[in-house]
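Job type: complex structure
Entries:
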Amino acid sequence: MTDPVLVARQLGRSLPGEPPVTLVTEVELAIEPGKFTAIVGPSGCGKSSLLYLLGLIDRPTTGQLLLDGRDVTPLSGDERARIRLERFGFVFQFHFLLPEFNALENVMLPIRRLGRLSLEQAEARARDLLGQMGLADKVLKSPDKLSGGERQRVAIARALANDPVLVLGDEPTGNLDSVNSARVVELFRQLAHEQGRAVVCVTHDLAIADLADIRVSMLDGRVSEVRQQANS
Amino acid sequence: MTGAAISRSLGRIGLLVHIAAKHLLMRRRQTLVAVSGVAVGVGFFLAVSALMVGSQADFVKTLIDTAPHIIISDERRSPPPQPGVAAYGSGAVELHGYKVRSEVRGIKDWQAILREVNDISGAIGSPSLSGAVTLRVGGREEGLAVVGIDPSIESKVSTISDKLRVGRLVDLERVQGGVIIGEDQAQRLALGMGDIVAATSARGGTRNLKIVGLFKRGQMQLGAGTGYMLLREAQSLLGRPFIINRIGVKLTDPYAAQDVAAQLERRHAYKAESWQERSADFLGLLLTRNVIMYTVVSAILLVASFGIYTAVSNSVANKRRDIAILRSIGFSQGDLQLVFVLEGMVLAVIGVVLGWGLGYVLMEILGGLEFPISGDVQRIPLDRSSRQYLIAAGASLAAGIVAAWLPARKTAMVDPVDILRGAV
């Protein structure tokens, strides 16, 4: 078994108040590279909250989060932003593309922000990624000229822009029809199995959860079950 | 920083400017309003300050040029110390009410002072003698303040030769008993060029003077009853041979006048008055005027920056979702604040450039206006120096950055989790 990318130890998040509202509590979890992990559970169980904690968008109130064995909980906002930029990629239920930018420019955003490639190299990489998503002929289209499935694939290309070790999806198929949904799930499986990335997806769709390598069930803010599934 | 680091941070700024520009292009009307606000502010700042600074410079130039930069006269600011005080110090007793021997007025040892003045690089000293005479024509009498000068030197020190309506200053040397008086006075006494007039001084001498030139009307410094003669002839008319009571000094740098005057006065005890001292009241007025002007034009620029504040503030409010998305991608809070500050800067820069154009056009219009004043066509004096353009640009940019930075701070209050989950 390979070393996990991300390890949660007694991870918890509550909202201040009287009494405090607990979103996530006492989560013990290891996210492994090359595996497609699905987080499932009834709505309000804290699965999305957990995903934002794992993705370093939100901060835990208790516990630790280890990235490659290093505790990243005490890092500053800028350092966490840097980790998201370099190593993580997000896909949301809504495509969340910037409306002023065309598909190519949207995918180039993280590459240009990282600044390791020249503008020409960045564009070549973005075109390549969009090509892999089957969108080679749509690169200059603005998001509102694309179908829902196409937008979500542009969003996936953007998530992969800086070659992340961890891809996080928050109901990435929630707004798609079954054909597009299946296509996205297949893509996520490829990202894990063929490209060796760690893929974590929150979903309420049990059919998707069945296709995952690891199925994490949540209830009332706690991880109730972690099950290995034979899908590789 | 290494080359790679520099190009990376340039790339970052380029990307953030790109995002800012996209935001502005999406909201064209608001962009237009903000930009035109700055442009109008800058344009009118330029026009108003060109007028104010230009007229002030013109006025100060008049103050400086009409009379010598420094006038050394035969007066003292305080009575000279008595020889007794010098010899016995506190042992001397001060007496009041005693009669003094009438002193011969005039600057003693003036040749030495003149030599010293001329030794200052670029400085020229012009000795003169002034006194009062009475002009008599037919039955009429009128006083004349006569100034005896050396025309070739005086014309280098003051601008009186520009103020002649007819005649030339050098004519004083050519004509025996030549005098130049004001147009007004000549008219009152029914005198014209070449006419003869009798002049009597207090010491009894009477001579016939011949009009060889006339000064234009309305010259504040010359006064209505001032006449210029050759120094030699004035000395003889006033019965004070070899005496002068005034040295006019012109310097290459008029603003050094105060220091040079103080130095001369310290050494020779004669009152040496700089143009600044003579015009202290005017200079005080100019200061007040400048305070008023800069208050008004700063207010113009400040109001112009409100447009930027509104535009950026709305942009932040409307782009909360984009802010959250960019944060999730890995843009830092600083990046996003900078995006919105850059929006303000882009608005300010475009506004400044358009405002420069507007200001230039306004100045062309103002500069083209002609006013007939006492027979001459006059134009409004304008200061068109690049300094005004730079001040306008600097002030607008600073105001724009502050106006953008205030709302840009609000990006920090956007919680990406709320927005990404809620999908607002």
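Summary: Chain B touches chain A through 30 residues (CB under 8 Å). The first strand of chain B starts at residue 70 and ends at 73.
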